[in-house]
UniProtKB/TrEMBL annotation:
Keyword Transcription tagged: yes
Protein name in the entry: Response regulator transcription factor
Keyword rRNA-binding found: no
Residue span(s) of domain HTH luxR-type: 150-215
4-aspartylphosphate found at: D55
Length: 220
């Protein structure tokens, strides 16, 4: 089954460019388009996309609020890929904190766009880990986020789970973590699932944000 993508951007040329790039791939299908975040929820319910590629800045409902609304109201929501003009943007970090799974620059090359959609859909690695680390260093409260620290303390991660979380923050995939720890991939998947469940995180991006904001992992 192809990865179904919903494009959400107030610029028609951006949507057209993304559509052209994605529909050239045999394993990706553009399920629909919207010009504002306010249209996301009804379209997601009707089209059931796997990934929503969504502009972070839109006139009526921006990508941050649209992400919050989508995750709050839609059961089994799709992955959310925030599309942005600027990499080092507080809006991007707020979208990640709100629950977005990753971000993509509008100036990205076609191969990077395709890779981002596939990686987000698979959910087994962190997209642009160095950029996420840089954003966390600038906007992540220097490990002083009380909610994140409380979540980490409440999680009571085992030593191995903590090791897995640190490797996740470095952007390693499940297979790469397995090779590093000399264990099977299924074992790593079990550890990752345990980390997410204990932290109350919907995916590895949210777990890594918690790790940075709690001070468990230093973003520098």
């Amino acid at each position: 089954m192809p990865v179904r993508v919903l494009l959400v951007d107030d610029e028609p040329l951006v949507r057209a460019g993304l559509r052209a790039v994605l529909e050239a791939q045999p394993d990706i299908e553009v399920a629909g388009e919207a010009a504002d975040g306010a249209a996301v929820i009804p379209l997601v319910r009707r089209l059931r996309p796997d990934v929503v590629a969504m502009d972070v800045r839109m006139p009526l409902l921006d990508g941050i609020e649209a992400t919050r609304a989508l995750l709050r109201t839609v059961p089994d929501p799709p992955k959310i890929l925030v599309v942005t003009t600027f990499e080092n943007d507080e809006y991007v970090y707020e979208a990640l904190r709100a629950g977005a799974d990753g971000f993509l620059l509008k100036r990205a090359r076609p191969a990077e766009i395709v890779h981002a959609v596939r990686l987000i859909a698979e959910g087994e690695s962190l997209l642009f880990p160095a950029s996420v680390r840089q954003l966390a260093a600038e906007y992540g409260e220097g490990g002083g986020n009380r909610a994140a620290r409380a979540a980490l303390e409440h999680a009571r991660l085992t030593e191995r789970e903590g090791e897995v979380l640190r490797l996740m923050a470095r952007g390693l995939s499940n297979a790469e973590i397995a090779a590093r720890l000399v264990v099977g991939t299924e074992t790593v998947k079990s550890h990752v699932s345990a980390v997410l469940a204990k932290l109350g995180a919907r995916d590895r991006t949210q777990a890594v944000i918690t790790a940075y904001e709690s001070g468990f992992v230093a973003p520098g």
